[in-house]
Specification:
Alpha-Beta Plaits; 35% strand
Length: 96
Amino acid sequence: MLFVIRNIDKPNSGALRAANRPAHLAYLDEIAPVLKLAGPFLADDNETMIGSLWIVEAADKAAALKFAAGDPYARAGLFESQTATPFRRARGVELG
């Protein structure tokens, strides 16, 4: 089953995000078999990262949240909130 993971950064946390970015990207490579889509949310300036969205394949919500909790950004305390919502693709690019 697919899940949308929505990560929202704490305010003014750009330095924390930057410091943990290499480990975060390595983690995304590690979970590549289940990661169908990932990218940052941007502020109105279209540059400042303020969170992220992932679509992952997982057995259930608990498993999806486990992937999310393993992210170095999450372990560093970057996120104000982190949610997982079941998702079913209806149109667009096939997600595996």
